[in-house]
């Protein structure tokens, strides 16, 4: 069904580039591969997080177009390597009606109204443990792990919503930058840090399942404002 003028899809398309899930993931994976090659990082599994894309064989031409059109740089991370075998779940995507991400500053402030599926449960309720770990392996920073409560309420077996999860991730990253970073947050060329400097330019793209009870947020960095030495 085509969106009407009153739907969020149609409203978001006026003057704004619309991203499908496939286009978003294609752009993200191409950018991620570029950073791994540039900084000599290794991968522990296929860069494609969407089996449908792997089966469909996305062309190099479409990947190159995605890199050119993507509105953010991927914040380089090492992939967390699980110590035991596990069955990975599909990544959790964070998209608004107009962008292939949600700004961490918006999520931190609870402004998640534009997040697609914000009221959807994120985790399966079959044997849902109360805690899951968030892991960050940002190049140039120490490894970071923090457990978060994924039940809502905490004494139930119901999963938190995608909107609440985005808020929790934003809070953890803000606190991480505020407490632990005395120098640049990631590569110096991205102009993040010290402390929470540049937090407003960070965006949440997806959450990857990297071990049985661990998830790794994939972040993007928006260009700096004109006049502040924008990234090339």
Given helix and strand content, the structural type is alpha+beta
Biggest beta sheet attributes: 7 strands, mixed
Query: Into which percentage range does the β-strand content fall?
Result: 15-25%
**Helical segment tally?**
6
| Mean of residue pLDDT values | 78
Any idea what the radius of gyration is?
18 Å
Unreliable residue stretches: 6-16, 42-68
Topology, number of strands: 7
Can I get a quick summary?
This protein is α+β, with helices and mostly antiparallel strands and 232 residues long. It is built from six helices and seven strands.
What does it look like?
- The chain has helices at residues 8-12, 21-38, 51-56, 60-69, 104-108, 162-180, and strands spanning 73-74, 92-93, 102-103, 131-136, 144-149, 202-211, 214-221.
- The protein has 232 residues and is of the alpha+beta class.
- Strands 1, 2, 3, 4, 5, 6 and 7 form a 7-stranded mixed sheet that branches.
- Strand 4 (131-136) and strand 5 form a beta hairpin.
- Helix 2 (21-38) packs across helix 4.
- The protein is globular and about 50 Å long.
